[in-house]
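Exam revision sheet. Question 4 asks you to relate a sequence to its structure. Input first:
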Amino acid sequence: MITKLAKRIIPCLDVKDGCVVKGVNFDGLQKITSPVGLAEFYSKSGADELVFYDITASSDGRKLFTDILTETAKNVFIPLTVGGGINAVSDFDRVLKCGADKVSVNSGAIKNPDIIKEAARLYGDQCVVLSVDIKRQNGKFTVFANGGRINTGLDAVEWIKRCVNDGAGEVVVNSIDTDGVKGGFDIEMLKAVSDAVDVPIIASGGAGKIDDFIKLFKALPKVDAGLAASVFHFGEIEIQKLKAEMQKNGIPTRL
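Answer key, structure tokens:
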């Protein structure tokens, strides 16, 4: 039976120069494949949603590529969240017109925090996704910008609380410390965030095997979704097998 408590499984397409890429700790990016075919595959393979990040738009100081996004969105029949180079409300409008269901803002909100209030007012909280790249610095959870390249000095939990108060309807917590390492999700970091806010939390960074998702949802029932990239891209985890295992472990999911 489907319930509103069902945990979501979300593949992430990190796109650079029109290709899906993957690295470790946000570094050493390798090209994998075209996002269009991969998105279509996930749409048919039981993924609950899909995330599309143009990962160098902010660091390159340009707008998100819309041609590849439009082509990707045509082939996806599950909710699509899109981010990268979102610096103004006009960027929300452009991306939504390309077929996105939700818009993810990260570095753009750090540069212009009012973007969240403005976008939430125009499009609704449910459309505004705050994505936060977090790394431990001197024992504190600290926000990084521009694809993990710039230490902002911002306290991550306080930043997330502020943005949720301004209208962010969902938060993606990207742990730079565990990204691509495949040693499990950053439970400590995710707990700190999920204890602080009452909007859906998406865990990102660290998935290496099915059991990592089971541990995540059992340890932190308030976390709504698990996001991963390479373990899905390379077939190390099949989404249907993951969901069957979640169901066996009493974790609600849509099969």
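Marking note for examiners. The first strand starts at residue 8 and ends at 16.
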